[in-house]
Queue: 2 jobs
Job 1
Amino acid sequence: MRTSSTRDQATGGSPDESPAPVARLVGAVKTYGSGPGAVRALNGVDVAFGAGAFTAVMGPSGSGKSTLLHCGVGLDRLTEGTALIGGTDLGLLRDRELTLLRRTRVGFVFQAFNLIPSLSARENITLPLDLAGRAPDQGFFDELIGALGLSSRLAHRPSELSGGQQQRVAIARALLGRPDIVFADEPTGNLDSRAGAEVLAFLRHAARERGQSIVMVTHDPVAAGYADRAVFLSDGNLVADLAAPTRESVLAELQQVAS
Ligand code: ADP
Ligand code: MG
């Protein structure tokens, strides 16, 4: 694997300078189906995501990006290997325990927003905490809503919001519970470039100013340029790890991955 960093990010760096990773995959294999039609979507991936880091996951369509996110967060189970959130091995949890962990310790932003149509923006944002029986921190709620420009939109239903506003509601929902880590699958994939830039700037701000750990799948080199690190998948393998990515360095890496 190519790496541009002197620090060994895949293992979280030397013990005295980096805290334990917030999320980690070890020897991750995911096979869909069986027999001759089986697809090996992850082919033995080792990757660790450090506290407060904003990481972009890149690679061609079908390279395993969504699978990595879904297995990393316990929405789906690995065929072999280990997925950890903090010190918790997701493979050892029952389905009910996994659901509880997802509600309390991780946030997820889907490309298609996945908001509940019949609920207002405010109700959508607080839903995970409501389900977990936790009261939202009102100060943090106000701060998030202000920073995301949603203050005048809270009573509206998703159908009354623009795509950019819906995605910002989904991001507020993922961040409100101050999860250990937020996973976002192409969060700007359905947005125009201006709305996309606002969402990316907010995610970068959350990582830098609040230490929110974020892992974001994207195929857009401009989007990856907002992150602190970019990792590259190809055919289910992690093939490169780039520190401080820029649009240019990401484009160069993508060309190598494709060749
Ligand atoms: P990416 O997000 O990088 O486009 P995915 O993780 O969605 O890639 O898919 C990786 C591979 O696994 C692809 O070949 C895809 O067709 C296959 N795959 C993904 N999900 C399923 C599924 N539920 N059943 C069968 N094959 C799947
Ligand atoms: Mg995908």
Job 2
Amino acid sequence: MIQKQRGTIDILPGESEAWQWMEETIKETAALYGYSEIRLPTFESSELYKRGVGETSDVVQKEMYSFEDNDRRSITLRPEGTAGVVRSVIENSLATGAMPLPLYYLISCFRYEKPEAGRSREFYQFGVEQFGAQNPAADANVISLGYDIFKKLGLEVSLEINSIGCRHCRPKYHKALHDYFDACKDELCDTCLDRLDKNPLRILDCKSPICSKYAADAPKTVDYLCPECAAHMEELKLYLDTAGIKYTVNPKIVRGLDYYQRTVFEFISEDIGSKSTICGGGRYDGLVEELGGPHLPGIGFAMGLTRVMLALKAAGKLPEISTAPALYIASMGDKARLKSFEISLALKKFGINASFDQVGRSLKAQMKYADKIGARYSVVLGDSELEAGKATLKNMADGESREIDIADIQALAEVLNA
Ligand code: ATP
Ligand code: MG
């Protein structure tokens, strides 16, 4: 038997309804903030991610699913959404219209990682990117969208923010970090040793216990911000206070990708494991230029839906969603089955799901089936019912029955909808 690949998941009927509910809730909230969906390819040139995600990120260094296609081009399955969105915004000149440009996507991403709870090789993300707004108001509005989504889903999360400065203030900070980590470089993991000269900021994000132990006492970005970056952060706090959104400043947040500057943030859920990031984002004002586009500020986040679903389950916040039909129309004989098909179609015009026998079962087996699928009502059609034009509608829960007129679909729909 062929089995699914390690680190992939099957979302089966019974679970998929909860996923649909979660995604609908998210989309409705995004629409309230004026976001439009953007749908993009699942694979792009490897070069896009190397440049867009950054050579020193874990994603590019260790996690990409890359392969050569038949034309010997290096292709990568998308490990995240931002780089593709920026590519598309540039390629389709989307930034020439009204600004800001608010976009969202619901996608699966691929990363070659060691699978564990909340970490898979194909996983789902909801992400937003907004271009063309540099003011901290934009940062607050994006964060507020994430916050509102969690509120609507019924999840308790905490928000952590930080500023990692800009290209003016970061060199000084890099130097301070470099000096700090240089003193303990014999203890750093190999990847971080390599990052020490290239991008010491990345070391703060390393998950190895030794590197994170040293990272705890490392110099803090917020102590090195230039006046503009410091003012940006203070103003963001003011906006968040106005929105009534609680946050803490966590100087260790640098985000796993290279292109962020100034604001970075994470939403943390305590429902899965001790502490887990279910959404991360930030501002990336240099990225569009980096990928060959105009100067265009951007800010966004990516929400890990696989983890959001785990958190919803753990917190007992998944709603009861029934896919059971309102009515099961049992039939005896071919003529009655044809009629039951006709009635089931007529009821759909009233928004009602009625199921009928498509297998050719005995009446006893049909009633067992109606019970199994949880139909709320049942009715039995045979030659005598067809002749009389009347049948008996039975409430499956309490056994109560009433006579119905087979031809009066509207009256039947009213009973079923009541
Ligand atoms: P982590 O530190 O957990 O590896 P990351 O920094 O690599 O996360 P991002 O690239 O910022 O994650 O992706 C945004 C969100 O996508 C994460 O906060 C997380 O919820 C989710 N995510 C990332 N990688 C995975 C994965 N392999 N499986 C499931 N969800 C993931
Ligand atoms: Mg990661």
